[in-house]
Design a protein that fits this description.
The chain is mainly β. The chain has one domain: YVTN repeat-like/Quinoprotein amine dehydrogenase (Methylamine Dehydrogenase, Chain H). The protein is 7% helix and 47% strand. The strands form seven sheets. Strands 8, 9, 10, 11 and 12 form a five-stranded antiparallel beta sheet that branches. A four-stranded antiparallel beta sheet has the order 3-2-1-29, with no helix packed on it. Strand 15 and strand 16 form a beta hairpin. It starts with a helix and ends with a strand.
Amino acid sequence: MRRAIEVWLMGIAFSLGTALAANAGERMFVPLGDGNAIAVIDIAEDKVIGRIDDVSAAHGLAGTPDGRYLIAGTSRTRVRLGSAPAKPTEVGEVDRTVHHAPGKSDAATGGGDVVNTVTIIRQSDLKIERQIDVPGAVHHVAASPDNRFAVVTHPGHNGISVIDLVAHQAGPIVLTGPGANFAVFSLDGSQVYVSNGGNGTVTALNTKTWNVTRTFKVGREPEHLAIAPNGRHLYVNNVKSGTVSEIYLIDPRRAREYRVGANPHGVDVSDDSDWCYVALQDDNKLVAINRKKQPQRTLMLAPEPYHLAVVRGMAKIYVSSAKEPKIWVVDATTLKVLREIPIGGKGHQMVQQRRS
């Protein structure tokens, strides 16, 4: 019996050591909104190891899969690069117009020399390489699997800007629907999906033409999106419905909707694609829903769980708080809090990247 226990413990130690080795050098980047910085976390140690400063009101963030760039967006406006000096107009990164009133125009970005910024950051040295003008407040960001493009959403302009990461320039806004909120690419990069909070839809665009190819009807005021690692299931939180929609991309007729609770916000999917994790900001809960019809699991988290990210290859979840400057580290299997990470601000769209 003792020998069996020793073998079992050795197996756990080996598995943990293998996971840590596989994720050595990987970091989680957490934009801090009005903190005007991005926190850098060592995911093996669950501790902050640095900051990227001078990134104004960073809310949306994405990383290129090759580990070369981080792409940070802001909902704060400023004078266009190269224009005559003037005091920029500022809109806070949690402004209600951007976050909870989809479809309304950006009053502060109506034209002229007032624009918004997308910042390109080198991961090699965490220095800013380029700032790119875009015509409206940016909410969330996605990077294409081929490292060529980034997409930023403009809720107040009902669409997205496509940024060429080779030429370092942005194209005109592509309309997707009222209150364009969140974007994710398909695993093969052929499609990008955009949630439209103003009409309860998710729009699919062809990434060769940037034309809309399909529209999925979901719940009321959809926001965050997560695509499962298997590439077949797309999840979206419906804020006003208190639900999560599961779109089966191979056959959308087999879509499902799960009731989860008040004000679902962050959403992500387990490594095996079986579990979807949802932060319920108003209910102070983390909920795990299972596509194979296992019972929902719940963890009480207070105050106000907000954005979340599954830490790939580590069987844990990072969940930020909308009220306190911290991240909860949650065991994805047991749904128990392992520890907390002080981050010095309010954590938004988190990105896991391997050191380049």
